[in-house]
Write a structure and sequence with these properties.
Elements (H helix, E strand, L loop, with lengths): L7 E4 L8 H16 L6 H7 L8 H11 L6 H4 L2 H20 L11 H12 L3 E5 L4 H11 L7 E3 L12 H10 L6 E5 L2 H9 L3 E5 L5 H7 L7 E2 L5 H16 L2
Helix pairs in contact: 1-2, 1-5, 3-5
Length: 251
Amino acid sequence: MGNNKIKAFIFDLDGTLVQTEILKAHAYGKAMHKMSDGAVTEDYVVASFGEFVGLSRNEVAANLIKMYSSSLSSKFLKDAQNAVEQLITTRLEIYHQMIFDPTVLPAYACPFSIGLLKKVNDGGFIIGLATMSYAQQVNKVLDTLGLKNYFHHIITRDAVEHGKPNPEIYLQMLRQMNLQANEVIIIEDSVAGIKAAQAAGIAVFGVTNSITSKAVNSSGLLSKQFIVNASPELNEKVFNYINQLETVLHK
């Protein structure tokens, strides 16, 4: 076998395996609505959230505060850092209520990405999870969806200094897996995640959703072969790519 046979998959979590990005968007929207005394609607924030998917919570909050600064309550106008911290705190309270409701998360699971996860597990691939969410939230999501045992390696935002699009989390995962970049495929949903994967030199498929579709498709980062807008195509595109690699190896 050649040295670029695919041996492992790394999955993002939010927006890839479960549509928590949608829940986060609505949580940020509710928080901004509250902090602006109703001047900023939840729908406005949800509509603009796609620009910030894949970034850390601090970066998302700072961007939203900057975007809607003119609409914030007066008590936040003089202290942007306080506004960022308050937005994070308020958003987390709302988001935790959502993910700790056992009826909510299953309704937002991504069946085709989870189907791929189970298929590659059955195929004996090494599987990692690399997410910008923090461990407490990740554990809750995985436990609720019954997915934790599918992963051989899990790296969360707690374990890296730099968030996506910095490749740190993927480079760290390669070290944990003891594999080379050309032996791995990444499944991502966001521009930031795709950039991180590419910066690490790893092949990446962009699985879009209602929040990330426009940004991913217009980014120019991936060819159509590696963009999955219709989720049922995910398995076919991924394994066509693997078969192409195998064909090259055996020529």
